[in-house]
Automatic annotation (TrEMBL):
This is DUF2304 domain-containing protein. The keyword Transmembrane helix applies. Keywords: Membrane, Transmembrane, Transmembrane helix. The chain crosses the membrane at residues 26-45, 57-78, 84-103. Pfam families: DUF2304. InterPro entries: DUF2304 (IPR019277).
Amino acid sequence: MPSSTWHAPAPRSFSSSGFVRRQMSLYLRILLILGALLTLWTIAKRVKRNKILMQDAIFWLVLAVVLVIMALFPGLIITLAARLGFYSASNFVFLVVIALILAKEFSNSSEISMLRHKVEELTQEIALRDLQDHEERNDPSR
């Protein structure tokens, strides 16, 4: 009777630390460079049209530089991935990109919350001024 339990296949090659070392694929490296170029082109276009604040543009420029560094120096990424215990360099690359985007999302959420609060305060202030103006115009004693 055959066993019904499934066993994962063993990895083919282990490094001295026990984790599988994989090379970063050429496809991933090209994808990183294309992503960086697309980011740079989009940011340059938006800065030229004054559609983005400089502090936001700087974040995206730093992200593009990080993508290029990861693509041009795969040995660095492979070494970092192995030392941090990642199964492959691509997993590490995805984690870095996701972490940077999550950090930006958190920053945007904080900024949106502050802006919503400010809009609420300004709306209340305008409503009070309008009420005061309305009362002054309709006050017969003046």
